[in-house]
Amino acid sequence: MLDTFEVLTTSGVVLWSRTYVPVGANIINSLIRDVFIEERILPQPEDAGSKPTYKKEGYTLKWTASKDLGLIFVAVYQSLVHLTWIDKLLDNVRALFVGLYGEQLKAEHSSVVNCDKFGSYFDRQMHELEGASDSGAPSVRLSTPPSSTDNESADERAPAPPLLQKAQRPLYDTSADSTPVPTPDTSRPTTPAHSHLVTGKARPGPGGSRLSRRDKKKASAMSSAPVSSGDEASSKRKGKSATKRNRVWGEFGAEEQDDSVLDYSQADLRDGASENEAMEEIKQETWGRKTNKGEFILKDLDEEMDAIISAQNAKKEKEAMTTASGGLVGSSLGAIGGLFRNVVGGKTLTKEDLVKPIKGMEEHLLKKNVAREAVVRLCESVERDLVGMKTPNFTTIESTLRTSMEKALTKILTPTSSLDLLREIQHTNATSPRPYVLSIVGVNGVGKSTNLSKIAFFLLQNHHRVLIAAADTFRSGAVEQLRVHVKNLHELSKREGGHVDLFEKGYGKDAANIAADAVAHAQKNAFNVVLIDTAGRRHNDARLMSSLEKFAKLAVPDKILMVGEALVGTDSVAQARNFNASFGAGRTLDGFVISKCDTVGDMVGTLVSMVHATGIPVVFLGTGQHYSDLRTLNVGAVTRLLMS
Amino acid sequence: MAWYDEDSWLTAAFSPKLSTIIVTCIVALVLPILLHGFLYRNAAATASLPTFLLVGPSGGGKTAFTTLTERNTITQTHTSTQPLTVEALLPSPHIPASAHYRSAGDPAFERARRFLLLDTPGHGKLRHYATAQLADPKTIRAIIFVVDAAALAEEAGLNEAAEYLHDVLLALQKRYTSATTSKGPKEIPVLIAANKMDLFTALPANLVKHQLEKAITEVRTSRAKALRDAGAALSGGEDEVDEEKEWLGEGGEGAFEFSQMQEIGTAVGVVGANVLGQGEKGSVEGWWEWIGENL
After folding, report:
1. pLDDT by residue (tens digit) across B197-223?
2. In chain B, which residues have their Cβ closer than 8 Å to the Cβ of A36?
3. Closest by alpha carbon to A544, among A554, A534, A556, A553?
């Protein structure tokens, strides 16, 4: 069963929610954090057919967004339950909510949206979809109590939604055999036509047509009473909703005509379907009249709801249509206006407007050595950001795109948490007897040992006692290389303070054991930082990578940094991913050191590619040959370089 | 029909016909009205109210406070990803300092009670919304730094809050020191709004102040020791001589205290309150009072 459904704004305010089973607020918070902010979990593309999902603590979350209004619709349910109609529910609720409250949402300097009565729409939508899915599952039908079907007053039904309604639905099935319940797939395109026909037939029918309409209204006023707060308010709202329905209805009617003019081929098909639908609809109505009046209100609300949903869908279609083919005059006027707006600003951006600038932006980023995968993702997120947005005054599309891309780059590069290494060392030393263990991994020849000694120099400057462990037992000369570094650093440490030593066990031994021994040795000899150098390994060699898991288990590093060189191109994404996944469950990389940044000029795209692949921040940049040429990341500078 | 013909439109436009006169009159009268309407609508949007900027780490209760001020009821909130501007009215017992001599019926009094609350996302990746505002604080009247007083009891929460606060105060100091006029920029007071006082583990306001001062001192020293950032190395190459770093407070020496910020025109106050109570509305009278003092 659905546990919670929430409508919230991107600024974090919950506009409307319906809770069946209370779910902690942290579930949705972590969805926002992981998916929308940190983009750790990439949603599947929309056209894959289903809505993106996110799993957390036994819950499954599905969501959809209305970008232009800044709305997020989230449905939360237990992962054990498999609900097939959630996608449809999200779509319908989005269309309904946007249709009903779109105007209110556009108000400036306000977060208030008065949507108390959305509950009844939502309940109705739930019943319909749940009913549709239940009719296919006989076991559920059997479990519902048969007594609750016949003499049910509307008042009783409203507060206890899902169970009772479930009982109602199957009854439809038995009374009218030929699929009276519109399945989600067919209902959308056909409902506008059928509701039209229903009203048309009702008017010439036997005298009581007007009366029945009035009854409907009366009954609906009754039924909305339990949902809303008081009688007065409910009647007022009723009036409001009636006018609203009329308006939408008119809009929709015009829409229908347009459709039929523009597209003859589909109109035929649609008419045929709608006639069929209308027949069944009448049957339902007669049945409903026989049993109780309560049925009508729901029907009424239903029609209104369908009208809103179809109007929204039609609007979308129309938007797509007008961009594809406008009238001759309209298009040329539009083109001139568009050109004018392009210069002056105030143009509402569409996908087509953005295709060319985004293409240019893609090429620009590719030239900056950003991996294609990362480029595509950045451009997609920028496109998502911009479509439906109005350009500010006196700005072109290009400059709008630029600022948006800068924002996206800043967002992707900015670390989530603080990266203060000294602070962490201080904290670890204060709380545990174990030294702070930092290990460095990476592909061959990227500069692991060099950057390790640079970090050692930085720590020595801050008067730490550093032990360097030579866990590269494979490449000849690796230990000797470190010995030279340690000798140099030792000389420097005499001037700067601190103490440095090398822990070595020769070649051919198991690296993980050496690392563990080094930590024990350091603890005994009061070193407070251990830096572990590892052998370089090719990231797509499973045999070499598998030893890293054992390494992580035995040495238990507080921080694992991966060195990547700025020179690498597209391969950076695969490198980062494979290393990130190689430490076994529950352990990932903690950061990147990007070396050789001084050799690439402004083509610093590797930074973006690596962070894109893993969501792990860049901690250090190597910018030269000296021990002091280690820098922290300056997001603003990198963004400027990439955009220049 | 050519333009020089007797009955062409050009001839008609210059001849003393009634229709020509009417059209001219209509154009002459309607055009200014339309222009006025257009300009008026555009200009009305920028009528500025004093803005209070809400900053602070994620989960502090910024959005909750925003909605509470706007609606006077509590609403459920989640992590923000976009800033939110809300127009609010100072609740009635509190009187704006700028209008304390006005009587209650005065329309100017009502106007003075209006202000904007600008809520910014607190997540580490989304702080650029707030920093962009701080870099150019023309409309910002005051800054409210909302912090979870219960989270401050733990080291991680304290560090995050202290680092963010350090950056905010440093931005304010830079604005003061880089000002070119002798008078200096207008003062921007900061309120450290210690939220969630109803929780058992929440630190009291004076302890919040003390802990934050201590943590900011630490942040300052570790910033001093840290590596330089890559800005100069990446863009210039030659100009390795970094521009001199600026230190928060009196030259970055000794222990940091909020009272040091008085020098740069920033009064820092710490007031505890809770937006949410035990399932119902909490009390944020202290914050409103502070807003009133600075409105």
Report:
1. 888 888 888 889 999 999 988 888 888
2. 81
3. A534
In contact, A310 and A192? CB cutoff 8 Å:
yes
Let me know whether A355 and A438 are in one domain: no
Looking at the fold, whether A464 and A349 belong to one and the same domain comes out as no
ipTM score above 0.85: no
Residue A142 to residues A32, A128, A167, Cα–Cα distance (Å): 39, 18, 9
Are A538 and A398 in the same domain? no
Residue B132 inside a domain? The answer is yes
Q: Are residues A399 and A426 in the same domain?
A: no
pLDDT reported for residue A438: 93
* Residue A290 predicted with pLDDT over 80: no
Q: Does residue B245 belong to the interface with chain A, where contact is any CB pair within 8 Å? A: no
Eight-state DSSP code of residue A383: H
Is the pLDDT at A278 greater than 70, yes or no? Answer: no
- Cα(A125)–Cα(A618) distance, integer angstroms: 47
Which of A365, A382, A413 corresponds to the end of one domain?
Answer: A413
String of DSSP letters for A208-249: THHHHHHHHHHHHHHHHHHHSS-HHHHHHHHHHHHHHHHHHH
- A-interface mutation test, from B67, B114, B125, B219, most A Cβ less than 10 A away: B125
Q: What is the pLDDT of chain A when averaged over all its residues?
A: 73
pLDDT at residue A305, as a whole number = 73
Most B CBs within 10 A among A412, A423, A592, A607, hence the mutation to make, goes to A423
Range of the domain at A508: 421-643
Q: What's the structural domain count of chain B? A: 2
Structure tokens at A198: 């229903």
Residue A116 backbone dihedrals phi, psi, to 5 degrees: -65, -35
Closest among B141, B192, B134, B146 to B294, alpha carbons compared: B141
Residue A26 contacts B where some CB pair is shorter than 8 Å: no
Judge whether B2 lies within some domain: no
What is the total count of domains within chain A?
A: 2
Question: For A17-61, how does the pLDDT look when each residue is reduced to its tens digit (9 = 90+)?
Answer: 888 888 888 888 888 888 888 776 665 554 455 677 888 888 888
Structure tokens at A1: 């069963």
CB contact under 8 A, B233 and A29: no
